[in-house]
Amino acid sequence: MMSCEGYRLSRRTFLGASAATFMGMQVRDLMAYAGKDHAAKAEHVIFFWNGGGMTHLDTWDPKPGRPTQGEFDPIKTSVSGLEISEIFPQLAKEMHHCSLVRSIAGTRGDHGRATYEVQTSYKEPLPIQHPGSGSVVVHEKAAIGDLPAYVSISGRAPKAAYLGQKCEAYFVGSPGDKDPYLAFPEGINHVRGNKRLEVLSSFNNRFADKTTSKELASTKTSIEDALRLMQSPALKAFELENVKDETLERYGDNAFGRGCLVAKQLVETGVRFVMVHRGGLTLT
C-alpha cells in the first residue's frame, strides 16, 4: 500500500492554521462560537412514523421549477422563503412553530433497511443490533412517574438492544382500549392475585442469588414495571373514555387520530417518548 506522507496533518499544524476550515467554517470561528449554543429545553417527544408515506416531492419539499417537481404546486407558509405542498394549507399557517429538515438523504432501496437506518442512524447489516432513537432518549433522561418512559402506539418500535429492558418500548396495539394484561384474569381477585405475585417474586429472588443471567434480570424488570403500572392511577392516560366527542372528531376518530390523542395525554402525564405509527406497505 502506498503511503501518503505529504498529506499528513499534525494536530499542531491543524490548530495553528488560521485558514483551516471544518465543516465549512474556519476553526477560529468555531472556537469563538463555543458555548453559545442554546441549551436543550425539550423534555418529551412525540414521534409520528408514517410507514410507506408520501414522497417528499408531494409534501414538504416540492422543488418548484425543477424537473423533479411533484404534481402539486408549492404554497407560501408563515415562514418567509419556505414553501410546502398545496395539500397542507392549514400546516402552512403554522410552519413558524416547526423545524423542517431537508438534508436527510436515503441510501437504501429496501424499506426494512431504510427504516433501520432512519430509526437507529446505522446501516444494516452489522454485527450488532442498535437501539432506536426512543430507547436512546429514555436511556439519557430519567423516567417521570409510574408510566413507562417509552410507549409505542399501533406498531412495534425498534428494540432497545444493548441498552437493556428498561429502555424497551411499551406496546399499545389499539389506542384507547384497556390493556388486558394489566389486570388479573377473570375470577382472580386482588388478594389472590397479589399472593401469586409474592410467590413468583420469592422464586425469582431465590434463583437470582445463584445466577448472573441478563435474561432473568430483564424478566424481573418487566414484572416490576408491570406491577407498578397495574396499581397506578396514571393508567387513565391510556384511556379515551372521558374525551369529548368534538375533541375526538378534531383529532380523527380512527386509529391514528386516537393514537395522537393518547400520545398527548401520555406526555402530559410524564412519558418521555411516544411513537405513533400510521400505515405501512405490504411488499409483494
Structure description:
The longest helix is centred in the last third of the chain and has 19 residues. This protein has a four-stranded parallel β-sheet, with helices on both faces. Strands 1-2 form a two-stranded antiparallel sheet. It has nine helices and eight strands. The two termini are 46 Å apart. Helices cover 33% and strands 10% of the residues. It is α/β, with parallel strands linked by helices. The chain is globular.
Question: What descriptors fit this protein?
Answer:
single chain; 284 residues; alpha/beta; four-stranded parallel sheet; 9 helices; 8 strands; globular; disordered N terminus
The chain-level mean pLDDT equals: 80
Spatial sequence of strands, sheet with the most strands: 3-8-6-7
Question: How does the helix and strand content classify structurally?
Answer: alpha/beta
Strand content: 5-15%
Helix content: 25-40%
Please give the alpha-carbon distance between the first and last residues: 46 Å
- Envelope shape: globular
Main β-sheet description: 4 strands, parallel
Taking Cα atoms only, what radius of gyration do you get, to the nearest Å? 25 Å
Can you tell me the residue ranges where pLDDT is under 50 for at least 5 consecutive residues? 1-8, 13-23
* Series of secondary-structure elements, N-terminal to C-terminal: HEEHEEEHHHEEHHHHE
Query: How many helix segments?
Result: 9
Quantity of strands, as a count: 8
